[in-house]
Specification:
By secondary structure, the chain is mostly helical. It has 23 helices and four strands. It folds into two domains: 31-92 and 128-263, no CATH class; 279-479 and 490-603 and 627-670, no CATH class. Helices cover 68% and strands 2% of the residues. The protein has a two-stranded antiparallel sheet with strand order 1-2.
């Protein structure tokens, strides 16, 4: 009879949890940005090329605060502006000899409206200084971000060593950092291809996803997730199996996610930029709401440090512009232009007053309104410009390819294009109107509507304020509610009602849209329009008559409230922005199409202008007004339709939110 010899049981040291590791030891793939619609860090990493996210990451990592705002304004705005102004001031006019140009070059210049007269050329030394300064800024930013990534890798190595009860060996740590030096360099280039790390296995051999979750735990994405995956899989993943990123946006997001995990800062408890905790200023704001204080001065005194800095910066910029206008340094910006600028700002502030202070001052704090408006003005506008430039370039290339194919099949049109390009372009537009209509459709619905509505949603989503934090919202009450916890009730602020939260979301999204529209109006008035007071005022009036951006933002807020308050998880980003995109795209499509046919009509009337030029001015002006009237009426019709849609949908939603509040009140009384 055999006896079993007992074996000693070997107790292994505690092992770290089976978390997945990516290159450099990160717990999130660099390719998994925008895979989780509930994350706000994704949008913050895109804004300003990740500057805000990088600042917050460094602060959480080692307590390093970013440079003062005035220094950043001087480095990133004032000095480049001074260099550009110096190039314009010291530019020398160079006469272009028209006789030395070939006939085809002259016709091409006429076709695209290029002036062949005197041209200004900046001194080469100033041009080199400008570009050298930009290169220095890029290199300096890259060095800072690489140092942050190396420090995060060091913390990850120390975390794994502590989980295994091992001491950190400095030699092995240096070897680890040296081994991953290439990863640090590749992650923070201006534009690079980073080796993809989206297919890994955890310790149990279970296939996992780029967002660090197992297949059964995958979070359903939204429209932005699908768009991002389509873009990545179409171009870069299929070509070189790499992840292409610009300005290290994806790496910045990955680092912020990792630092949030290391420091336990997944929940936002402080502002960006100033890093002031909510607990320092929000109790005073909450007290004003509870007391129903309507004194604007008292609301002003409770502003956070970030809002105060934003307002002070605005007043400082306006003061500098006023001195600049009164000094007559530049004839293109005088005191009359300053008045137009103030009217543009006043139009946005007046609508903000009606939307917030007149009706919803206690649903969203004045502090939050300042932040949302500033985000729309400063962050969403550059994002929209960048995205629209990329999409517009791709759309233009596709249309140009179609035009080339059509010209290859139409030999007569091709010969006419070589002999007289200007007339040929008009004939081509008249003969193939469908191509231009498709181009107008792409520009109005995809380039403008989809991009701008998505960016405005990002502007709302990336701003985190205590007013709209989940713990301050009242949702459908659960059975675990206990009214006997009197001590807890004394130390916590009362939860907002569903109706008040919905009104706050609407005001927040409209504030972002007003900031975006204000900046866009300034660009249309002072950049895209001729330097004429009459044209600037007419542009301001025309754009003020059609407040499409705030109206579309209000329509978006209905979907956001259905998702975040009513709990309808079917409302992703696509369903939220679809009604706004339809209204915005239709509005732009009608105006762009009317402008296209008006330009064709104007081109046709130019042939007989030389015969009766003395009477042409008045007749053309009356014809222009008559031609613009249908487009203006159509735009007004779309605005009215949007207002009616929002009124009906908002009233129905308000009834549902009131029912939720009543149900919560009844349950409290029963308990």
């Amino acid at each position: 009879m055999s006896t079993e010899i007992p074996t000693a049981t070997v107790v292994s040291p505690p092992q770290p949890p089976p978390l997945r590791k990516y290159r450099g030891g990160f717990h999130n793939s660099i390719c998994s940005i925008f895979t989780d619609p509930t994350r706000r860090t994704d949008c913050c990493a895109v804004a300003c090329c990740g500057v805000l996210s990088s600042d917050r990451t460094r602060y959480l990592l080692d307590g390093t605060r970013p440079p003062p705002l005035w220094r950043r304004v001087a480095i990133y705005l004032v000095i480049p502006s001074l260099l550009v102004a110096a190039m314009n001031y010291f530019a020398v006019e160079v006469l272009v000899d028209e006789s030395s140009q070939a006939d085809n070059n002259k016709s091409t210049d006429d076709l695209f409206g290029v002036d062949s007269g005197p041209r200004k050329v900046a001194p080469l030394s100033l041009v080199l200084c400008f570009w050298a300064y930009l290169v220095v800024l890029i290199v300096y930013t890259r060095i800072q971000r690489q140092a942050t990534r190396s420090e995060i890798m060091k913390r990850l190595y120390e975390e794994r060593a502590a989980a295994r009860n091992e001491e950190v060996d400095p030699a092995r740590l240096r070897l680890f950092l040296e081994k991953n030096r290439g990863d640090v360099t590749a992650a923070h280039r201006a534009c690079c291809c980073y080796g993809k790390d989206d297919v890994f296995f955890n310790d149990d051999g279970v296939s996992t996803l780029p967002n660090g979750r197992c297949e059964e735990e995958e979070i359903e994405g939204d429209f932005c997730t699908s768009l991002w995956r389509c873009l990545a899989n179409t171009f870069w993943a299929s070509c070189c199996a790499c992840w292409c990123q610009c300005c290290s946006i994806c790496a910045v997001w990955q680092e912020e996610m990792e630092v949030n995990r290391l420091t336990g800062s997944e929940e936002h408890t402080m502002d960006y930029v100033t890093f002031q905790p909510y607990s320092e200023y929000y109790p005073a704001i909450q007290a004003l709401k509870e007391n129903q204080t309507t004194n604007l001065v008292k609301h002003w005194t409770t502003l956070s440090e970030l809002s105060v800095k934003l307002l002070k910066s605005m007043f400082l910029v306006l003061a500098v512009l006023l001195l600049f206008a009164l000094s007559n340094i530049n004839q293109n910006f005088t005191w009359e232009n300053m008045i137009v600028l103030m009217l543009t700002l006043g139009q946005a502030f007046f609508i903000e007053y009606l939307v917030h202070w007149r009706w919803c001052k206690f649903d969203l704090s004045f502090d939050a309104v300042v932040k949302y408006f500033a985000c729309g003005f400063l962050l969403t506008t550059p994002m929209a410009i960048a995205f629209e430039a990329i999409i517009s370039t791709v759309a233009s290339l596709l249309i140009m390819a179609v035009v080339v194919v059509v010209l290859g099949a139409d030999e007569d049109m091709a010969h006419e294009l070589q002999s007289d390009p200007k007339v040929a372009l008009k004939d081509f537009a008249m003969k193939y109107q469908g191509i231009f209509i498709v181009y107008v459709f792409i520009n109005s619905f995809i380039v403008a509507a989809v991009t701008e509505e998505m960016v405005k949603y990002f502007g709302y989503w990336m701003v985190v304020t205590p007013d709209l934090l989940p713990e301050n919202r009242s949702s459908v009450p659960s059975s675990s509610y206990n009214s006997s916890d009197e001590h807890d009730e004394e130390n916590t602020a009362p939860k907002k009602s569903a109706r008040s939260t919905g009104a706050g979301i609407t005001v927040a999204m409209v504030s972002v849209a007003l900031g975006f529209a204000c900046c866009e109006n300034l660009m249309y008035i002072f950049v895209y329009s001729p330097p004429s007071i009459g044209v600037e005022i007419s542009t301001l009036v025309a754009r003020s008559l059609f407040p499409v951006h705030p109206l579309c933002a209000a329509i978006q807020s209905i979907g956001v409230c259905k998702r975040d308050i009513e709990g309808d998880k079917k409302y992703g980003l696509g369903r939220i922005i679809s009604p706004a995109v339809l209204l915005h795209g239709s509005f732009d499509f009608v105006l762009m199409l009317a402008a296209f046919y008006q330009s064709l009509k104007a081109t046709s009337s130019d042939e007989g202008a030389d015969e009766n030029q003395g009477e042409a001015s008045d007749e053309v002006t009356s014809e222009d007004l008559a031609a613009e009237l249908p487009s203006l009426v159509s735009g007004l019709v779309f605005v009215i339709i949007g207002c009616i849609y929002y009124g009906i949908a908002s009233r129905a939603q308000n009834q549902r939110l009131l029912s939720m509040d009543q149900a919560a009140t009844d349950l409290e009384l029963l308990v």
